[in-house]
Please model this.
Amino acid sequence: MKMSQIFHIFRKDVRHHWIEILVCQAALVAFCWNEVRGWRERIDFRLDILSTVVGVLLPFTWGFLVFRAVHSETLVGDRQFWITRPYEWKKLLAEKILIVLVFLNLPLLIAGAALLIKAGFSPWPHVLGLLWMQLLLIQLPFLPLMALAAVTRNLAQGLLALLAVVLYMIGMAALDGALTYLGFPSGDADVLQGLAIVIVCVVAIGLQYAQRQTGRSRAWLAAGAVAAVLVMLGNAYYLHGKDKYPLPAIGQLTSFHADLDPVHLSAPKEPPEKDEDVNFAIPLRAWGLTPDSLGRVRGVRITLKTPDGFRWDSDWQGYYSLLSPKENHWRQDFSMKYKIYERLKSAPVKARVSVAVEVFREHDLEVITAGNGEFDVPGVGRCRVRDKDASTLRCHSPLVKPPTMVVVRVDPAASTCTGQDKDQQTREGVPYAWEDGSNSNLPDYGISPVESFQFYFFSAARICPGTPLSFSFPKFTENTRADFDIATLNLDEYRTSSAYGSFVIGVGPRRR
Model:
């Protein structure tokens, strides 16, 4: 009798909401179709719009089904007809959970297995990872959707509450950006915030089903929203003032060095616009890594000081490139407000530049020949050369990316592509491309269990069937940092008309 009531309500909800259930499955099929197409095709503007529509449509259908199912036996007010049936609240709650598990989580689990098979991977070794992904989806968004549905009377109220949540998330993102801009890094508070979401949603749902105390349930949800803000602020305050990339300890030997590159820069002749930020680029050079090491620049920071005590700090700016054991050269972009630039451009400015680097030791070099279509790469997954773009290698792996950094090299002299100037490419050096490793053995939050990533070769290197690709898997050895001072910096000499564009992959000989 206990289980019969749950299945009785379940059959009733299926009869009443079969359209919503079918729409959810159709949206999931569309998502999988679009995901697979992204593996095979080069995404253009039109396809990107379609991906956005599909990505928004799927969670929208989830919310629509959850709201409709929970509102079938509304919990708000004092005229609930379902009390006279009588339904036991525990069985009613169990039935709503069953709706989510059967028509949301189970199809997502099956879709994840199908995507793995489509990508060329067997799903059986990754069952636990697939189940973990479903657990993350229960935490967000299924549990919050049930909580919102439980404290709203009808679909209109539910949609308004959902809009409020979306605005709240936008506000949280803006707060995170503001804290970072003010020098209060938000850090990683996802675990604490996720725990707060679970606790307040479970309490709110339990109060509604057990006692139908809408006011207290809504207060719990509001308190959870405030708690998430406090966690972010507390974490930012805790991290404030801590050196993100500390200098090596006194007496510790370091093989990494950096200083100002004495290359001549040509500043734009036109003055900067008063209503726009002023961009400038500092030329840098670095050297000293051991022959079997690679360095990844994690951040570059510049601090400017004037004789009257004024100080401007750029904070850490990222740079996407690898450093080879040889001498490396690049330009790091910075930006400042026009008023600050006006104050500094004519003053005798002293500068201190900091370059933070992660050092990796190369291991497990393996040469793989590019195939015609997809080909296996041990330790990475399955890869293919992008059609119509022979300088991009697209790969995918099951659940997570490789646990270590992956570096791919292409020797232009060994390329099997026709119609390219191999002598010129050889003079430019061996092109590099790489992908960061995964921080965890568990899959991240998401729908697709296939982790896709690309290796971009921005140089003239091209990959065709038969081209040998050299894969290595560098392992992290240390964090290090190099600081140097510039006695006098004429800021206007380093000004650029726009951001210079330091998004570069590859390490090669010096170019001027």
